[in-house]
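For the sake of clarity, the format in which proteins appear in this thesis is described at this point. The record quoted next illustrates the convention:

___
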Amino acid sequence: MSADPMTALAMTGATTIVAAMATSAWQTTRAGTARLFNRGGHDLPAIEAQLDGDADIVAEDDDTDGARQDLVGPWRRRLTALLREHPEVEAELRALVDEARGELAPAQQNWIQHITAHQGLAAGTMGDHSSVTIHYHSAPEHQHPASPPPPATPAPGPGAAPAPRAPHDPR
């Protein structure tokens, strides 16, 4: 299953923005992201406050990678909505991604996401230079849904021969 190009770009943008949080690339990425959303009609102080708050979460969390992973989804949604409403910002988002990646250390450009599926299908994408590992666990045998009952035997139609009787059948 492949995502449309705008959804993929939104995911790449989101992973790049959060990867830059609490790094030397943050100020450039923050300014570019704020400009991008402001061109899309968003209130500049509000978007800057959101960016700063999220960057603080990453900086203050003992698990910075986990904090970043938690923030990817909301930023992907924001970027997807922005691209839908204002497709003209696509080139600017691509330029922002390229610029931010150029400032990030190579280790900060690569992300690994682990996905676990329980009785279902799971898929993930994190953007370019990322890997996704999918683990599938089936439910223990006693938790599997019961097999459907066999189909009912239709009643014989008019003129059909009666069903044979068993020797002890009192019909």
Residues 9 and 117 are 25 Å apart (CA to CA).
